[in-house]
Amino acid sequence: MRNILTAVAAIVAVCHLSAAPVKLYDLYRKGDYAGVEASATAMQKEARSDAQKGTVLSYVSLARQKQGKYADTAAAFADIEALAKTLGFASNHDQVQSAKLQILQAKKEHASALELSSGWTGPRTLARRAASLRALGRYAESAALFASSGYANCHFQAAISARLAKMPEKVYEYSLTAFANGEVKDPAAAIRLVNAVIDADYTGTAVTAAKVKELLQTVNRKYSRRLVVGQPSKWDELIQLVRQTLETY
Questions:
Q1: CB-based burial of residue 198 (10 Å sphere; 0-12 exposed, 13-18 middle, 19+ buried)?
Q2: Cα separation of 17 and 4, whole Å?
Q3: For position 87, what pLDDT does the model report?
Q4: Band (91; pLDDT cuts 50, 70, 90)
Q5: Average pLDDT over residues 190-198
Q6: DSSP per residue over 94-134, as a string?
Q7: Contact yes or no for 40/56 (Cβ under 8 A)
Protein backbone atom coordinates (compact mmCIF):
# COMPACT_ATOMS: atom_id res chain seq x y z
CA MET A 1 0.00 0.00 0.00
CA ARG A 2 2.79 2.38 0.89
CA ASN A 3 4.42 1.81 -2.50
CA ILE A 4 1.12 2.46 -4.25
CA LEU A 5 0.59 5.71 -2.33
CA THR A 6 4.13 6.77 -3.18
CA ALA A 7 3.53 6.08 -6.87
CA VAL A 8 0.24 7.99 -6.82
CA ALA A 9 1.93 10.96 -5.13
CA ALA A 10 4.62 10.94 -7.80
CA ILE A 11 2.02 10.89 -10.58
CA VAL A 12 0.13 13.80 -9.00
CA ALA A 13 3.35 15.79 -8.75
CA VAL A 14 4.19 15.14 -12.40
CA CYS A 15 0.67 16.08 -13.52
CA HIS A 16 0.86 19.25 -11.45
CA LEU A 17 4.15 20.20 -13.04
CA SER A 18 2.97 19.38 -16.55
CA ALA A 19 0.30 22.07 -16.13
CA ALA A 20 2.75 24.49 -14.51
CA PRO A 21 3.98 26.33 -17.65
CA VAL A 22 0.38 27.06 -18.69
CA LYS A 23 -0.53 28.40 -15.25
CA LEU A 24 2.63 30.50 -15.05
CA TYR A 25 2.13 31.84 -18.55
CA ASP A 26 -1.44 32.87 -17.72
CA LEU A 27 -0.29 34.68 -14.58
CA TYR A 28 2.53 36.36 -16.50
CA ARG A 29 0.20 37.44 -19.29
CA LYS A 30 -2.11 39.04 -16.70
CA GLY A 31 0.82 40.97 -15.25
CA ASP A 32 0.64 39.17 -11.91
CA TYR A 33 4.41 38.96 -11.52
CA ALA A 34 4.25 38.44 -7.75
CA GLY A 35 1.93 35.50 -8.40
CA VAL A 36 4.32 34.14 -11.00
CA GLU A 37 7.24 34.28 -8.59
CA ALA A 38 5.27 32.70 -5.75
CA SER A 39 3.86 29.90 -7.91
CA ALA A 40 7.17 29.11 -9.60
CA THR A 41 9.01 29.12 -6.28
CA ALA A 42 6.43 26.73 -4.81
CA MET A 43 7.05 24.33 -7.70
CA GLN A 44 10.77 24.16 -7.00
CA LYS A 45 10.56 21.26 -4.53
CA GLU A 46 8.60 19.13 -7.02
CA ALA A 47 10.77 19.87 -10.03
CA ARG A 48 12.70 16.79 -11.17
CA SER A 49 13.65 17.07 -14.84
CA ASP A 50 15.87 19.75 -16.34
CA ALA A 51 12.83 21.12 -18.18
CA GLN A 52 10.84 21.47 -14.96
CA LYS A 53 13.75 23.06 -13.12
CA GLY A 54 14.32 25.35 -16.09
CA THR A 55 10.70 26.49 -15.93
CA VAL A 56 11.19 27.44 -12.27
CA LEU A 57 14.46 29.26 -12.99
CA SER A 58 13.07 31.10 -15.99
CA TYR A 59 9.84 32.31 -14.41
CA VAL A 60 11.27 33.21 -11.00
CA SER A 61 14.04 35.35 -12.48
CA LEU A 62 11.81 36.97 -15.08
CA ALA A 63 9.13 37.75 -12.48
CA ARG A 64 11.73 39.35 -10.22
CA GLN A 65 12.99 41.40 -13.15
CA LYS A 66 9.49 42.61 -13.93
CA GLN A 67 8.96 43.55 -10.27
CA GLY A 68 12.12 45.67 -10.28
CA LYS A 69 13.89 43.49 -7.73
CA TYR A 70 17.21 43.65 -9.55
CA ALA A 71 19.37 46.76 -9.28
CA ASP A 72 21.02 45.96 -12.59
CA THR A 73 21.87 43.14 -14.98
CA ALA A 74 24.78 41.96 -12.83
CA ALA A 75 22.43 41.53 -9.86
CA ALA A 76 19.99 39.58 -12.04
CA PHE A 77 22.72 37.26 -13.28
CA ALA A 78 24.02 36.69 -9.73
CA ASP A 79 20.52 35.75 -8.60
CA ILE A 80 20.06 33.40 -11.55
CA GLU A 81 23.34 31.64 -10.73
CA ALA A 82 22.40 31.34 -7.05
CA LEU A 83 19.01 29.85 -7.89
CA ALA A 84 20.59 27.60 -10.53
CA LYS A 85 22.93 26.21 -7.88
CA THR A 86 20.00 25.25 -5.65
CA LEU A 87 18.41 23.52 -8.64
CA GLY A 88 21.59 21.59 -9.40
CA PHE A 89 22.52 23.40 -12.61
CA ALA A 90 26.09 24.25 -13.57
CA SER A 91 26.60 27.91 -14.47
CA ASN A 92 27.10 27.02 -18.14
CA HIS A 93 23.95 24.88 -18.39
CA ASP A 94 21.66 25.73 -21.30
CA GLN A 95 18.80 26.54 -18.92
CA VAL A 96 20.97 29.01 -16.99
CA GLN A 97 22.34 30.70 -20.09
CA SER A 98 18.82 30.95 -21.52
CA ALA A 99 17.55 32.60 -18.32
CA LYS A 100 20.28 35.22 -18.58
CA LEU A 101 19.41 36.00 -22.19
CA GLN A 102 15.76 36.23 -21.18
CA ILE A 103 16.62 39.06 -18.77
CA LEU A 104 18.42 41.00 -21.48
CA GLN A 105 15.56 40.43 -23.92
CA ALA A 106 13.03 41.63 -21.34
CA LYS A 107 15.08 44.84 -21.20
CA LYS A 108 15.19 44.91 -25.02
CA GLU A 109 18.98 44.71 -24.90
CA HIS A 110 19.18 42.40 -27.89
CA ALA A 111 22.64 43.44 -29.05
CA SER A 112 23.96 42.64 -25.56
CA ALA A 113 22.18 39.27 -25.69
CA LEU A 114 23.97 38.40 -28.92
CA GLU A 115 27.33 39.52 -27.55
CA LEU A 116 26.91 37.56 -24.33
CA SER A 117 25.83 34.34 -26.05
CA SER A 118 28.52 34.29 -28.71
CA GLY A 119 29.80 30.72 -28.77
CA TRP A 120 26.95 29.30 -26.69
CA THR A 121 25.42 26.22 -28.30
CA GLY A 122 22.51 24.99 -26.17
CA PRO A 123 19.21 24.65 -28.06
CA ARG A 124 17.32 27.07 -25.78
CA THR A 125 20.19 29.54 -26.04
CA LEU A 126 20.27 29.31 -29.83
CA ALA A 127 16.54 29.91 -30.02
CA ARG A 128 16.89 32.99 -27.82
CA ARG A 129 19.75 34.26 -30.00
CA ALA A 130 17.50 33.79 -33.01
CA ALA A 131 14.78 35.83 -31.29
CA SER A 132 17.22 38.67 -30.68
CA LEU A 133 18.36 38.55 -34.29
CA ARG A 134 14.72 38.91 -35.35
CA ALA A 135 14.19 41.81 -32.95
CA LEU A 136 17.18 43.54 -34.54
CA GLY A 137 15.76 43.04 -38.04
CA ARG A 138 18.28 40.38 -39.06
CA TYR A 139 15.52 38.10 -40.31
CA ALA A 140 17.44 35.76 -42.63
CA GLU A 141 19.99 34.98 -39.90
CA SER A 142 17.17 34.52 -37.43
CA ALA A 143 15.37 32.02 -39.66
CA ALA A 144 18.48 29.92 -40.20
CA LEU A 145 19.36 29.88 -36.51
CA PHE A 146 15.84 29.02 -35.39
CA ALA A 147 15.79 26.10 -37.82
CA SER A 148 19.15 24.77 -36.64
CA SER A 149 18.48 25.22 -32.92
CA GLY A 150 16.36 22.08 -32.61
CA TYR A 151 14.39 23.72 -29.83
CA ALA A 152 10.59 23.54 -29.47
CA ASN A 153 8.67 25.20 -32.33
CA CYS A 154 11.97 25.88 -34.09
CA HIS A 155 10.63 25.46 -37.64
CA PHE A 156 7.49 27.44 -36.89
CA GLN A 157 9.60 30.33 -35.61
CA ALA A 158 11.97 29.95 -38.57
CA ALA A 159 9.02 30.28 -40.95
CA ILE A 160 7.95 33.53 -39.26
CA SER A 161 11.44 34.97 -39.62
CA ALA A 162 11.66 33.77 -43.23
CA ARG A 163 8.41 35.56 -44.00
CA LEU A 164 9.83 38.79 -42.57
CA ALA A 165 13.00 38.20 -44.61
CA LYS A 166 10.84 37.82 -47.74
CA MET A 167 12.24 34.35 -48.49
CA PRO A 168 9.16 32.51 -49.86
CA GLU A 169 10.95 29.23 -50.54
CA LYS A 170 12.10 29.07 -46.91
CA VAL A 171 8.63 30.04 -45.70
CA TYR A 172 7.31 26.99 -47.51
CA GLU A 173 10.13 24.69 -46.35
CA TYR A 174 9.96 25.61 -42.68
CA SER A 175 6.16 25.70 -42.61
CA LEU A 176 5.90 22.23 -44.11
CA THR A 177 8.23 20.84 -41.44
CA ALA A 178 6.45 22.73 -38.66
CA PHE A 179 3.03 21.42 -39.66
CA ALA A 180 4.31 17.89 -40.29
CA ASN A 181 5.88 17.85 -36.82
CA GLY A 182 2.77 19.29 -35.18
CA GLU A 183 4.77 22.26 -33.89
CA VAL A 184 2.00 24.80 -34.42
CA LYS A 185 -0.13 24.63 -31.27
CA ASP A 186 -2.17 27.82 -31.65
CA PRO A 187 -4.92 27.88 -34.31
CA ALA A 188 -4.62 31.63 -34.93
CA ALA A 189 -0.88 31.21 -35.54
CA ALA A 190 -1.59 28.26 -37.84
CA ILE A 191 -4.03 30.36 -39.87
CA ARG A 192 -1.46 33.15 -40.25
CA LEU A 193 1.18 30.67 -41.37
CA VAL A 194 -1.10 28.98 -43.90
CA ASN A 195 -2.02 32.38 -45.32
CA ALA A 196 1.68 33.27 -45.55
CA VAL A 197 2.29 30.09 -47.58
CA ILE A 198 -0.73 30.69 -49.82
CA ASP A 199 0.06 34.36 -50.44
CA ALA A 200 3.79 33.93 -51.13
CA ASP A 201 5.11 34.59 -54.62
CA TYR A 202 7.08 31.50 -55.64
CA THR A 203 8.11 32.80 -59.06
CA GLY A 204 11.63 31.64 -59.85
CA THR A 205 11.71 29.12 -56.99
CA ALA A 206 11.39 25.34 -56.86
CA VAL A 207 8.07 25.57 -55.00
CA THR A 208 5.31 24.40 -57.33
CA ALA A 209 1.54 24.38 -56.95
CA ALA A 210 1.79 20.64 -56.28
CA LYS A 211 4.13 21.27 -53.36
CA VAL A 212 1.82 23.89 -51.86
CA LYS A 213 -1.01 21.38 -52.22
CA GLU A 214 1.12 18.82 -50.39
CA LEU A 215 1.57 21.23 -47.49
CA LEU A 216 -2.16 21.97 -47.32
CA GLN A 217 -2.93 18.25 -47.34
CA THR A 218 -0.46 17.79 -44.49
CA VAL A 219 -2.23 20.47 -42.44
CA ASN A 220 -5.62 18.95 -43.20
CA ARG A 221 -4.44 15.48 -42.20
CA LYS A 222 -2.57 16.51 -39.04
CA TYR A 223 -5.00 19.06 -37.65
CA SER A 224 -8.47 17.81 -38.59
CA ARG A 225 -8.33 15.58 -35.51
CA ARG A 226 -8.48 18.74 -33.38
CA LEU A 227 -12.04 19.41 -34.48
CA VAL A 228 -14.68 18.59 -31.88
CA VAL A 229 -18.22 17.97 -33.10
CA GLY A 230 -20.60 20.59 -31.77
CA GLN A 231 -17.77 22.73 -30.37
CA PRO A 232 -16.69 25.22 -33.07
CA SER A 233 -13.29 26.77 -32.50
CA LYS A 234 -10.47 28.51 -34.32
CA TRP A 235 -9.34 25.09 -35.52
CA ASP A 236 -12.53 24.95 -37.59
CA GLU A 237 -11.51 28.20 -39.30
CA LEU A 238 -8.11 26.72 -40.10
CA ILE A 239 -9.49 23.53 -41.60
CA GLN A 240 -12.15 25.43 -43.54
CA LEU A 241 -9.44 27.71 -45.00
CA VAL A 242 -7.28 24.72 -45.92
CA ARG A 243 -10.07 22.72 -47.52
CA GLN A 244 -11.43 25.63 -49.50
CA THR A 245 -7.94 26.42 -50.79
CA LEU A 246 -7.34 22.77 -51.71
CA GLU A 247 -10.32 22.96 -54.05
CA THR A 248 -8.39 25.44 -56.21
CA TYR A 249 -5.41 23.10 -56.70
A1: middle
A2: 20
A3: 96
A4: very high
A5: 95
A6: HHHHHHHHHHHHHTT-HHHHHHHTTT---HHHHHHHHHHHH
A7: yes
pLDDT on residue 228: 56
* Rounded average pLDDT over 32-52: 93
Q: Is residue 141 part of a domain?
A: no
CB contact at 8 A, 243 and 197:
no
Q: Looking at the structure, tell me whether residues 187 and 102 fall in a common domain.
A: no
Q: Which amino acid is at 227?
A: L
Last residue of a domain, one of 77, 107, 137: 107
Instruction: Taking residues 70-87, report their average pLDDT.
Output: 97
Rounded to 5°, the CA angle 119-148-212 comes to 155
Q: Which amino acid is at 81?
A: E
3-state percent breakdown (helix, strand, coil) of the chain, nearest 5: 75, 0, 25
Give residue 8's pLDDT band: very low, low, confident or very high (50, 70, 90).
Answer: very low
